[in-house]
Amino acid sequence: MRSPDLNSTNKEKEPALLSESLFKQVNRHDALAAGIFNPHRLLYRCLSILFVIHIFILAFSDVAMPFSSRHYQKKISCLLKQLQNDPGNGKICNTIGFYFYKMGNHQMAIQYYLKAIDLAPRYPLSYNNLGVIYLRADQYKRAKHYFHKAVELDPHYIKAVCNLGVTCFKMKNYSGAMKWYKIAQGIDLEYVNKRKEHFLKK
Fold it and tell me: CA 110, CA 103: separation in Å to the nearest integer?
């Protein structure tokens, strides 16, 4: 019967024993020289890990962002470049404000609508768009003011006329709401009926 090879067994265990004794016996200076506890290498590895984590965070943030927001951000970037070449264009400012509004950034939307009004005071869309923000914020007096300005500039501007009717209704001015409702019917009956159906479905 063959006896166990004790020498071979000891040899197999040697690497583990040596690795354990290495950390116990060598001093810190020798370890640094060997590159085992090299602080520069450790720092590099930590920074590499943080960089990868950062990239993944950015990637997931971009994926998590709604498509519409990314879409509007790209449009805003393009329009801002156009505005640099044509800084007096109020219509561009109005469109930028509209995209900020669609993204839910009402503060920036108001800023660009006001800039649009300053640059193009005869452009009714900016007044109506600004009125919509105040209407949704339940600031009915401000909303009514801007809707009135839009209608003064364009009496057939159906959206502003309808918005005036809605604002009057919200303010419990039912006679005023009926007045603007009838005016809207006279301008575009089909549009009024579509809006009425839209509200009834909600």
Answer: 13
